[in-house]
Design goal:
Helix content of chain A: 55-70%
Oligomer: homodimer
Strand content of chain A: 5-15%
Order of helices and strands of chain A: HEHHEEHHHH
Number of helices of chain A: 7
Strand order of the largest sheet of chain A: 1-3-2
Structural class of chain A: mainly alpha
Largest interface: A-B, 67 and 68 residues
Radius of gyration of chain A: 20 Å
Chain lengths: 182, 182
DNA sequence: GCAAGCTATGCAAATTATTGCATTGGGCGT
DNA sequence: ACGCCCAATGCAATAATTTGCATAGCTTGC
């Protein structure tokens, strides 16, 4: 399980509260790791107890105060060691693909709709990432080393997304021909 | 959760035992849904109790006997209804990408090794899928309708895999240059 | 001054998935 | 005859994740 490490990674450069972490997991890092706010808050407590994070209550104007977490030296060390360990192969899970195995005249129309919806979602996310990449990672070779890693991860997300869109268009074309039969 | 539906989908055309299902989840369908044998056996019991599957003990020569499951009409109906429902967006999780966010001179070498290992894994799976596609799905337009869906899923897997390999090569090139600095 | 709505944090229960065994039957090698 | 490996099925405990609340501050509009 890499949730604690994903959280620590998110805190490498910016101190954040649980709420802010949850939002950032819906964005950049979330392309590779997804977590709900409940999971995050719970994990923050655990990481605090272990001494990997320190926390500080910060008052805000016009908002309730938040608890901002930052990586301790111990946390940094543990994270660095984790990186050197073995990665587990990722587990893919996708309803839509399973549903495609069930393609029939009864459900083509519905699957087309779902594919279009998914296409839209991926396109939005892709647009966001492309913007981040253009903005902050335009000249990858010039980046400091850690940022090069972030760039590569981002590039992976972008290229996977673009490939998905291409596939999606092909699939929609084929499904449209199937639908025409009914 | 789509595990029960993934299992039923796998049983659409072929009757299988839990052991065979577990293997098939390591292969074709497993590109989109992964499950351990424990999960599968347990789910098979549940699906049996609900009347979605029927089972039959089959004796084998040179092997212990197996319990072969087949979809009942009720199961088929439930599956068909499930397809018409909403799909949840997939959840991506990948250690390696999180690790890339931690890129440093201390871990480049290790990340290169891990990327190469991952590349190898993807390539093997890709090879398998390409072979299946060439063998059974060479002329997609000529396939019966359900098979067209399977073809599309397979095509998604193949194109994602190929894109990953391209990204991987770029990433390895970049990491090699980083490593040269140390 | 009250409802609606966003920020912010959290608990508890239920569901899903993983990890670590355990068992039975038979083949194969020595 | 013994140990080892593979096929096949399963249980139990733990870990991870989701679902469904609950609470509290502070703002804005009515």
């Amino acid at each position: 399980m890499a949730l604690p490490h994903a959280i620590m990674t998110a805190l490498l450069e910016d101190n954040m509260s649980g709420f802010e972490l949850a939002k950032s997991f819906d964005r950049a890092l979330g392309f590779f790791w997804r977590a709900s706010h409940q999971q995050i808050y719970q994990e923050l407590h655990k990481l605090g107890e272990k001494g990997y994070l320190s926390s500080e209550t910060v008052a805000q104007q016009a908002k309730p105060s938040k608890i901002e977490y930052s990586l301790t030296d111990k946390g940094r060390q543990v994270l660095a060691e984790w990186v050197l360990g073995e990665s587990k192969v990722q587990e893919a899970k996708d309803d839509l693909m399973v549903k495609l195995y069930n393609l029939s005249l009864d459900n083509v129309a519905h699957l087309i709709t779902e594919l279009e919806r998914r296409r839209e979602l991926v396109m939005q996310r892709l647009y966001l990432y492309e913007r981040i990449r253009r903005r902050h990672y335009d000249d990858p070779e010039a980046l400091p080393i850690r940022r090069k890693g972030v760039y590569l991860a981002l590039a992976a997300g972008v290229s996977q997304g673009e490939e998905f869109l291409r596939w999606c268009d092909d699939a929609l074309t084929m499904l449209a021909r199937v639908e025409a039969l009914s």
